[in-house]
Design goal:
The complex is a heterodimer.
Chain A: H1 8-16, H2 19-41, H3 46-62, H4 64-77, E1 81-85, H5 88-101, E2 106-109, H6 113-118, H7 120-126, E3 130-133, H8 136-144, H9 160-171, H10 180-197, E4 200-203, E5 207-209, E6 214-219, H11 223-229, E7 233-239, E8 243-244, H12 247-262, E9 269-273, E10 287-293, H13 297-302, H14 316-319, H15 322-327, H16 338-349, H17 366-370, H18 377-390, H19 396-409, H20 412-425, E11 430-431, H21 440-443, E12 446-447, H22 454-468
Helix pairs in contact in A: 2-12, 3-12, 9-10, 16-18
Chain B: E1 9-12, H1 16-21, H2 23-35, E2 39-41, H3 51-55, H4 59-73, E3 78-81, H5 84-96, H6 101-113, E4 114-116, H7 117-124, E5 137-140, H8 144-150, H9 154-160, E6 167-168, H10 184-187, H11 189-206, E7 210-213, H12 216-228, E8 234-237, H13 238-242
Parallel strand pairs in B: 1-2, 1-3, 3-4, 5-6, 5-7, 7-8
Helix pairs in contact in B: 4-6, 5-6, 5-8, 7-9, 11-12
The chains are: A alpha/beta, B alpha/beta.
The complex binds iron/sulfur cluster.
Iron/sulfur cluster is lined by residues 260, 311-317, 340, 370-373, 375, 377 of chain A.
């Protein structure tokens, strides 16, 4: 996917002015937040569970090479194949090779963010394969030719009216406004056909279990299960950070994930996939592949962004981010939006084209509070700001204003003289316009100083008290 | 001068925004601390805690300002700030000096003695003998740093409960950011405006006559937007209400 993160400001402005997007976002936001809150209130010690989740991930990351090897051995022992991809290109080629060797013509996909990260759909289509998304949200945005705007609810930015319109265009059904169940039934009927005809099924993997080589897949529509049981070939696409040591650990993570993502105790379908179909099994693929993607993750493992690799892609940080809820996911311009995306995108595509992402955040800290694996997202965003400043990616007036202010603030006598002057000569009341103001007074008055600074008034009060004392 | 000569020596750090834009908050803090039995000092040599530099990646200036602040406040028993985010900044100073152990331990000592005003009064002094009157309804906005970094939530409410005439009406999403975010509000004014509009809608929904908070930055943002919309809702720092030192609110005309 080509990034438009460098157009963040314009995209955010357009999003704020888009009424149907705003309607969709408002509806989604309270739904996610309330459901999560209820699920967590019903769990005796959610913070303890978060702490366990954090430890499991930290431990795995500290010994990632070991667990990756164990996982790969276990997958091969069950008759599956593991492919290591250093970057997006290698991952695309691995998938294409598998499809071509299997002489596949059609591919069905369950939801995979790694698939978005490497742009797998485009690559397969270019090679002449038909690709059909089977997650309803993904299917909707595939019809709309749009990228996902949320990591667990890819079409959350679409209103029901827009979906009816899309279905009418593509299915030839009525464009009248219809209820959700009817739309789901219509999509299901069409997808059924595709499921049955597909040669290859591609899914993501929520957790990869090192001890057994099991891939844990979490969905609410069962499309993941169909994608892996019906086609001849099943390919799992996953980042190397998805490892957990044991099945027990996977269970802990699933409990965290479902509650944080959708406020469920457990997702409707939680599937454990271990290798291709065995002789005595009625269903399952003949061929089974796991493509493990690095794409910068190993580098993060070694640097100060390691904690970000704990992320289990639950989307809670998006749902609770007031900036995300105001502008939606597309404004961020690449695969991963919201707080987690603002940390990840610069890792994957560089600091230069992503200048706004770490800055478009008030550091309010709500994301960190809800993150099931306690990732210090604001701290990581702040660290990215340090790097931007260090590498002079932040330049021009912004940099000079900051340095000048710092220079004055480091000279208390000068500082207090200047502020006293400003207070004395500023007009009274509140300003509707300020000189050199990049943005405050467009929508807000600026309350002006009232004749004296605290410092000068205090000094005078001290003098008077001492004089009388 | 106060008669409470036996109380703790408290260094009041009047934050840069309060110093320049709302000195009344500083005087209200002095009054509250003196009422609570403290000997209040306002040390010289202070300007700003360095938060804008720290949050913008300018660590050189952030460290220099941290050192300046540490030196100015080293002799106080406690350091109190009428701002959760600035108190939070002082608590973060040790992180700035990973490469300078001597400064790190000085920063650590300061961090351990630094408090946000309402939390200092309630949690450290166990004082809530507020004597003030505010005959109006008000709603309280939980500013982010105070809330999440320092756990300031119950303390201002416990104190406001003692203000006679005040009726506190909680608003929806009181813990959601108002869109100030330091330099955020000038770098991304459109997003910031949308966030403050949400906040103001929640304030309006309570029907309260005033909005209070413990963070002047947020209050400037909220008050600035209220004024622009011609709203009659007034904005005050919580210290002003607790000290009984209210005028016509932040951004108002009264001098
Ligand atoms: S950063 Fe945390 S809250 Fe956000 S998606 Fe990842 S795990 Fe979920």
């Amino acid at each position: 996917m080509k990034s438009t993160a460098h157009l963040f400001t314009e995209q955010a402005r357009a999003a704020l002015a888009d009424d149907s997007l705003q309607a969709a976002l408002r509806r989604a936001k309270s739904g996610f937040i309330d459901k999560r809150a209820a699920a967590i209130a019903a769990f005796p010690d959610f913070d303890g569970l978060r702490e366990r989740g954090r430890r499991i991930k930290d431990h795995t990351l500290a010994h990632l090479d070991h667990y990756l090897e164990r996982f790969a051995d276990a997958v091969e022992a069950c008759g599956g194949h593991v492919h290591w991809a250093r970057d997006a290109d290698e991952a695309r080629r691995a998938v294409l090779d598998i499809c071509q060797r299997a002489q596949a013509r059609s591919v069905i996909k369950g939801k995979t963010m790694v698939g978005e990260e490497i742009g797998i759909n485009g690559a397969l289509e270019q090679a002449g394969l038909e690709v059909v998304e089977t997650d309803l949200g993904e299917y909707i945005i595939q019809l709309a030719k749009e990228p996902p705007s949320h990591i667990i609810a890819p079409a959350v930015h679409k209103t029901r009216a827009q979906i009816c319109q899309l279905f009418a265009e593509h299915h030839g059904s009525t464009a009248a406004l219809r209820e959700a169940p009817e739309l789901v039934a219509e999509a299901r009927a069409i997808l059924r056909e595709k499921f049955l005809a597909a040669d290859v099924g591609i899914t993501g993997g929520n957790f990869l279990v090192a001890e057994t080589g099991t891939v844990v897949l979490v969905t609410n529509e069962g499309n993941g299960d169909l994608s892996l049981t019906l086609p001849r070939v099943h390919i799992v696409l996953a980042g190397i950070e998805k490892l957990v040591p044991t099945l027990d650990d996977a269970a802990t993570m699933v409990r965290l994930l479902a509650r944080s993502a959708t406020g469920q105790e457990i997702s409707t379908y939680t599937t454990f996939v271990t290798g291709p179909r065995r002789a005595n099994e009625p269903e399952g693929p003949d061929e089974y592949h796991v493509v493990l993607l690095d794409n910068g993750r190993a580098r993060m493992l070694a640097d100060e962004f390691r904690e970000m690799l704990r992320c289990i892609r639950c989307g809670a940080c998006l749902n609770h981010c007031p900036v995300y809820s105001a502008i939606g996911g597309h404004a961020y311009g690449w695969v991963y939006p919201g707080p987690m995306g603002s940390v990840l995108t610069p890792q994957f595509i560089g600091l230069d084209g992503t200048k706004d992402l770490p800055n478009a955040c008030t550091l309010n800290g709500r994301c960190q509070d809800v993150c099931p694996v306690k990732i210090p997202l604001p701290g990581l965003l702040r660290r990215l700001r340090d790097l931007q400043f260090e590498r002079r990616i932040i330049r021009g007036p912004q940099r000079w204003a900051l340095r000048l202010w710092g220079w004055v603030a480091r000279r208390p006598r000068l500082y207090h003289r200047l502020t006293a002057l400003a207070a004395r000569f500023a007009p009274r009341g509140a300003a509707r316009r300020l000189p050199l103001d990049p943005g405050w007074t467009r929508s807000r008055d600026f309350p002006l100083p009232k004749g004296r600074t605290f410092k000068s008034a205090w000094q005078e009060r001290q003098r008077q008290e001492n004089g009388h004392g | 001068m106060s008669v409470n000569t036996g109380g703790p020596r408290v260094g009041l750090f009047v934050t840069c925004l309060v110093d320049l834009l709302r000195p009344n908050v500083g005087f209200a803090a002095v009054k509250l601390l003196e009422d609570a039995g403290c000997r209040v000092e306002v040390p010289g040599g202070l300007t700003c805690c360095g938060q804008p530099a720290y949050n913008s990646g300018d660590l050189t200036d952030a460290r220099a300002l941290a050192k300046q602040t540490i030196q100015a406040l080293e002799s106080c028993d406690y350091v109190v700030l009428p701002s959760g985010s600035c108190a939070g900044m002082l608590r973060l100073y040790p992180e700035l000096f990973a490469a300078e152990p001597a400064w790190q331990s000085r920063a650590q000592q300061l961090a351990e003695r630094s408090y946000e005003l309402t939390s200092f009064l309630v949690d450290v002094l166990h004082w809530d003998a507020v004597e003030a009157e505010f005959p109006a309804s008000a709603t309280y906005h939980d500013a982010c740093s105070g809330l999440r970094q320092l756990g300031v939530k119950r303390q201002p409410r416990q104190l406001l409960d003692k203000v006679s005439g005040l009726e506190l009406r909680e608003m929806r999403d009181t813990e959601v950011c108002c869109g100030f975010g330091g330099t955020f509000c000038v770098k991304y004014p459109d997003i910031s405006t949308r966030m403050v509009d949400d906040k103001i809608a929640n304030i309006a929904e309570t029907g309260a006559q005033a909005v209070l908070a413990g963070e002047l930055g947020c209050l400037l943002n909220i008050a600035g937007r209220l004024r622009r919309q011609g709203s009659p809702v007034r904005a005050y720092h919580v210290a002003e209400v607790l000290a009984g030192m209210t005028d016509d609110g932040i951004g108002g005309e009264e001098a």
